Amino acid sequence: NSGGMILGISYERNFNAMWNLDITLIDFCEVLGDKVRFEIIEKLRDNGGGMSIADIARVTGISISNAIYHVEKLKKVKLVRFNMRGKTAYYYVNSESIRLARMELLKLEE
């Protein structure tokens, strides 16, 4: 499959226009395709009020260092956003990024 195309859509095209980042559709899907990261997104979505790394580790049953690793991957493709409360970062699902990625994925149906 030369040229990086699936059904006429470049899967190597970056999301630069959406996020001002050099993220390809493949990068995005690889990050979200991990079971632990998908669970983190679900937990953040269900919580709604933001979760610290310690909260994420607790509800997913992973270590704090593992939670940091996975959250960093999610941050890289803008799937999560955060705000600081004192010295603690609280993470949230970035709904806008998910909406924009969904639009890109739906183009595969066209």
Task: Note the main sheet.
Answer: 2 strands, antiparallel
Unreliable residue runs: 1-12, 16-20
Proportion in β-strands: 5-15%
Structural class: alpha+beta
Spatial ordering of strands, largest sheet: 1-2
Which percent range fits the helix content? 40-55%
Count of DSSP strands: 4
Taking Cα atoms only, what radius of gyration do you get, to the nearest Å?
A: 15 Å
Mean residue pLDDT: 81
Contiguous helical run count? 6
Shape assignment = globular
What is the distance, rounded to the nearest whole angstrom, between the alpha carbons of the first and last residues?
Answer: 19 Å
**Helix-strand pattern, N to C?**
EEHHHHHEEH
Write the layout of secondary structure elements.
Blueprint: E1 5-6, E2 9-10, H1 16-19, H2 25-32, H3 35-47, H4 53-60, H5 64-76, E3 80-85, E4 88-93, H6 95-106
Antiparallel strand pairs: 1-2, 3-4
Helix pairs in contact: 4-5
